[in-house]
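FYI - complex with adenosine-5'-tetraphosphate, inputs then prediction.
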Amino acid sequence: MSDTTFTPRVFSGIQPSGNLHLGNYLGALKRFVDWQAKDMETIYCMVDLHAITVWQDPKDLQKSTRELCAGFIAAGLDPEKSILINQSQVPEHAQLAWIFNCVARMGWMQRMTQWKDKAGKNAQNASLGLFAYPALMAADILVYHATHVPVGEDQKQHLELARDIAAKFNHDYGVDFFPLTEPVIEGAGTRVMSLRDGTKKMSKSDVSDASRINLTDDADTIAKKIRKAKTDPDALPSEAEGLEERPEARNLVNIYAAMNSQSVDQVLADVGGKQFSEFKPMLAELSVEKMSPITTEMTRLMQNQDEIDKILTRGSERARAITAPILRQTYEIVGMVPPAEI
Ligand code: AQP
């Protein structure tokens, strides 16, 4: 365990790989906004270096990065309060990742379920970057000495690996330099499931657009997708235990709770006994009420790309004031010769 007290600092990121969806919003973005309201430094990142671990069309990547920045701001992140950055504009992320590539072990990476899922049976043909993804993620966090990382449940294993990397670095070099960062996985929205299959995570890469609500969907599309969401024939229970064997029902109740910043028990106290024919329109109305202003604001912001680019440039300057000294100290610990002052 680390004895050093680190200044509380929040870091998290989202890949600009298109199709920003309700899972990203409830599992990550909405919670980023909640953390911004606390008295802590908050840093949020568009992780484009992660996105290219699988092929991205260069033009789409630029558009998606700016769109994601617009989404961050439209959802309530204030570039004056939070540091908003594009990962590739802060080179210390990739520089620290190389050091961590030399700390992490092959066996640790091979155990990552996201690697197994994404590389699938064709692992020999997957990029080296996809394999090393969790070491870059550890660097994203630790290059800020971040202490809190709000993420969805799917990122839990990667965060545990970041702690393993920090602990091994500290042990190997006999220092207490990197914090053992706490994953913050809380609330009803940390695992939003597909609207077509309650056992599958809502995901950008699902071929079925009906499986997810995109942040770019208009009000009619949102309402239609919820109306068509898979459910079962029973009425809603009055207590959470009644959802145990009902993945689709549980998912819709979780979405309602997360969207309305309530607990599942609070929602069920209100809607227990209702049929889906009654609950779905309630969910659709709530979703449109919460999501439509974000979509409208995103569209408006996207018309002013210069403004977005300036926000990112300013964010990277503020970020580098934190990351450059931490990288310099890391290099010293590792034994790199520092550049001479001329
Ligand atoms: N379904 C989800 N429910 C809750 N949280 C989710 N997150 C992603 N999907 C869900 C959270 O969103 C943040 C950013 O995720 P990412 O950019 O790393 O994207 P991802 O996990 O790769 O998203 P997808 O949709 O799952 O992409 P593909 O289809 O490429 O695998 C993270 O905090 C994540 O937990």
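The domain at 9-190+304-334 is CATH 3.40.50.620 (Rossmann fold). The CA atoms of residues 130 and 246 lie 34 Å apart.
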